[in-house]
Amino acid sequence: MSTTNRQVRLAARPVGEPRPTDWQHVEEPVGEPGDGEFLVRVLCLSIDPAMRGWMNAGRSYIRPVEIGEVMRAGAVGRVVASHHPGFAVGDHVSGSFGVQEYCVSNGLGVTKVDPGAAPLPTYLGTLGMSGLTAYFGLIDIGRPEPGQTVVVSGAAGAVGSVVGQIAKILGCRVVGIAGGADKCRMIVEEFGFDAAIDYQSEDVRKALREHAPNGVDVYFDNVGGEILDAVLLCLARGARIVVCGAISQYNSTKPQGPANYLSLLVNRATMTGMVVFDYADRYGEGIAKMAAWRAEGRLKSLEDVVSGSVDDFPDTLMRLFRGENRGKLVLKIAD
Question: Is this prediction's pTM over 0.90?
């Protein structure tokens, strides 16, 4: 075991896109676990669009990462030392360990995972927060019914790809919005979506009229901006919009709100924000359901794993905003 812990800390709050100067690369001695604690060797880091919001100082659903603090990140790792009765050396675990090589934990919010049942990156994607976000957002807020049309943006991403597959399992017609012909082909051929719209080359509103002629019953929004406005003009009566994210706006200094919001009134529709942490007491339910679907071959996992070190975190994060990832983006920092 190394005696040095390499970390990435937040050095400044970004204005627009994060820059290399917004990060501080630090080395410090590996922490020693005390009574009731254990030491985790971090193996894989979860790279999420929400990270951009955590870097801001403003009020949000979770406290911001402070200047000088290790950047917050979900991760999976292996216990390498323990003085905790519930965690033994060799256990594989998932938790918010941060962008660093080692983390001392008291076990709060940490769960054991089985690398024999699924690859470790899957516990950051389909069987992790991304999958749980898709599951509870779609089922509890979207409330889709068999035969209804579900549209999801960011459909080739970690959350969107799972949303579409769950909607198909529930008997819905599913239309995905993604960027580029390859991603659109993937969500149809690999994930079973009924149709795909390439926002880079198609008129989204016109394509929605074609693929959802009776209107959109459920819209799961991961991008916001112009695509949200286009979908608002294509709603069915009583539509439900799940506001999960707005990646198109995260680096904007002047975020664009919906101009077509009156469509909610006309169509007696609802738009509801969704934060996965609100369902913490039901995580077990969601994981069990998705694990069963996965075992049956009805739910596929896609992890985009980048191998490197913690120092590669800043550039790996920017892959999200450049639209380079497919499925769940993971930074693997150790075997």
Answer: yes
